[in-house]
Amino acid sequence: MSITPATDATELESGVRSYSRNWPVVFDRAVGATLYTEDGAEYLDFFAGAGTLNYGHNNPQLKKALLEYLTDDKIVHSLDMLTTARRDFLTTFAEKILRPRGLDHKVMFPGPGGANAVEAALKLARKVTGREAVVSFTNAFHGMTLGALSVTGNSMKRGGAGIPLVHATPMPYDDYFDGDVPDFMYFERLLEDAGSGLNEPAAVVVETVQGEGGMNTARIEWLQQLQELCRSHEMLLIVDDIQMGCGRTGGFFSFEEAGIVPDIITLSKSISGYGMPLALTLVRPELDVFEPGEHNGTFRGFAPAFVTGTEAINTYWSDETLQRSTADKGAVIESTLNALVAKYPDAGLVAKGRGLARGLQFEEAEKASEVCRACFERGMILETSGPLDEVAKFLPPLTITEDELGRGLSIFTDAVDAVLAQS
């Protein structure tokens, strides 16, 4: 078959593609919080690569470090051989992220993406404890590979596996019963009842804010109780910080506010700072029991991602400026969402989230998609989340300017007004 430049690229790509259906334009370049199409149209980006671009598109400081590295013919691919880029990332991450937070976790590079980090965490938890079962939570999302999918809640995504997803047990997330059932009563009862049929879990895996699950936010007290429950039943606590880490909720780790110390932490998305593939599985030293090469892969640390990741930490995590800015901007979004909730008391709107991970839930699920389409028509992209796509989800770059944030919120408010006025 001959292919001409005029051929529609979508004819060549698998039907599994999704985002290009929601935003049917051809993007060409991007700077900061703005995307540009090939014909020059501009779109405010309140999506940020699903949380992969916390520092914006083509961040100039990160780009400078990357170009200098590549121009000097430095190592790009090295499996897990020691390189200057790898060493610099590890020492910077330890000195500026782990140690100031009292963490002594070992850093494992499991592969290029978040699902790799989750798979390594589950595998390690089972090896350490000798148990098979892992507890996850309703509406959780941890990835699309079989192990990660087994602890994911979305039925549509689980259905794509084609085989039974086993050795995982879902439990109710915080406020799943709208406050009608005391926290952990169901989970604790099953753990303590010899007739419950629940095998002793190796670990519990949790997101402090369920991004894909609908911007559900766990309370500090719930997270603290979860850690206590894990310790009392000798279960490892795994916090999946792939989307909510790297400053998305304020602190570098989303669990910092709760004062808990997970046994295993997964990071990816914005850890490279520049949208390049990189994933980490952080493990307490006594859990670092894999034999050399027992868990491996071809892309266990992409050197250019080490370079931009190191630069991002040095630039944004040497003080609390970004953390304070994220809290302030998050409060602005929260105020706008609360105003919409008050403006439409009969629409069943709920403001959700924390930091710069925010969402507006619609009682009529289809309204969220309609609002996102209306935003796209007005020059802004944002996606939906939740089991029914009932939440319009905000994930702007943390570096978004106050003017850009204000423009985006004006677009969103206008879109909500337009959609709900038709109801």
Automatic annotation (TrEMBL):
<dbReference type="InterPro" id="IPR049704">
    <property type="entry name" value="Aminotrans_3_PPA_site"/>
</dbReference>
<dbReference type="InterPro" id="IPR012773">
    <property type="entry name" value="Ectoine_EctB"/>
</dbReference>
<keyword id="KW-0808">Transferase</keyword>
<dbReference type="InterPro" id="IPR005814">
    <property type="entry name" value="Aminotrans_3"/>
</dbReference>
<comment type="pathway">
    <text>Amine and polyamine biosynthesis; ectoine biosynthesis; L-ectoine from L-aspartate 4-semialdehyde: step 1/3.</text>
</comment>
<dbReference type="InterPro" id="IPR015422">
    <property type="entry name" value="PyrdxlP-dep_Trfase_small"/>
</dbReference>
<comment type="similarity">
    <text>Belongs to the class-III pyridoxal-phosphate-dependent aminotransferase family.</text>
</comment>
<dbReference type="Pfam" id="PF00202">
    <property type="entry name" value="Aminotran_3"/>
</dbReference>
<protein>
    <recommendedName>
        <fullName>Diaminobutyrate--2-oxoglutarate transaminase</fullName>
        <ecNumber>2.6.1.76</ecNumber>
    </recommendedName>
</protein>
<dbReference type="GO" id="GO:0045303">
    <property type="term" value="F:diaminobutyrate-2-oxoglutarate transaminase activity"/>
</dbReference>
<dbReference type="InterPro" id="IPR004637">
    <property type="entry name" value="Dat"/>
</dbReference>
<keyword id="KW-0032">Aminotransferase</keyword>
<keyword id="KW-0663">Pyridoxal phosphate</keyword>
<dbReference type="InterPro" id="IPR015424">
    <property type="entry name" value="PyrdxlP-dep_Trfase"/>
</dbReference>
<dbReference type="InterPro" id="IPR015421">
    <property type="entry name" value="PyrdxlP-dep_Trfase_major"/>
</dbReference>
